[in-house]
Write a structure and sequence with these properties.
This protein has 116 residues and is of the alpha/beta class. It has a single domain (10-114), classed as 2,3-Dihydroxybiphenyl 1,2-Dioxygenase, domain 1 (Roll), CATH 3.10.180.10. The chain has 2 helices and 8 strands; from the N terminus they run E-H-E-E-E-E-H-E-E-E. The protein has helices at 16-26, 69-76, and strands spanning 10-13, 30-34, 38-43, 46-52, 60-65, 85-90, 95-101, 107-114. A hairpin with a 4-residue loop joins strand 6 and strand 7 (95-101). The longest helix is centred in the first third of the chain and has 11 residues, at 16-26. The mean pLDDT is 92.
C-alpha cells in the first residue's frame, strides 16, 4: 500500500496571475510555478494548483483549516475589501469560519478553525 501525503485543490481561473496574487499577497503563500497557463502556490505542506478555466467552468469550494483564524482575519481583512467576503462567525458544527470568493474564479474558500 502507499501513504497519501496531501491533496491539492486545482482551482480553475479566468486570470491565473490575479488568482495566484490572492494566495501570495493575502494568504502569504509562495509561488512555486508561474506560467501563462498554470501556477502552483504553496505554504507549509500545502499546494494549490491554478489552471485556465474553460467557458463552462463549474463552481467549486474548498476548506483551509488554520491555527489562529482571528489573527489571520485581522491581518488580511483590509486586503479583502474589494472581494465578496463573509466575516468570521461561529458554526453549529464547532468551527469558526470566514468565507471568500477567490478572485477570477467561481471558487468559494472556507477558512476555519475548531472552536476550543
Amino acid at each position: 500500500m502507499y501513504k497519501a501525503l496531501h491533496i491539492s485543490p486545482m482551482v480553475p481561473s479566468y486570470n491565473i496571475r490575479e488568482t495566484a496574487e490572492f494566495f501570495t499577497g493575502i494568504l502569504a503563500f509562495e509561488t512555486w510555478m508561474d506560467t501563462d497557463g498554470y501556477a502552483i502556490v504553496y505554504k507549509d505542506n500545502l499546494t494549490i494548483h491554478i489552471l485556465n478555466a474553460g467557458a463552462e467552468i463549474g463552481e467549486m469550494e474548498f476548506y483551509l483549516e488554520v491555527d489562529d483564524i482571528n489573527t489571520l482575519w485581522n491581518t488580511i481583512k483590509d486586503k479583502l475589501a474589494e472581494l465578496k467576503v463573509r466575516p468570521p462567525f461561529d458554526r453549529e458544527y464547532g468551527m469558526r469560519e470566514f468565507h471568500v470568493i477567490i478572485p477570477h474564479t467561481k471558487t468559494l474558500l472556507f477558512v476555519g478553525q475548531a472552536i476550543i
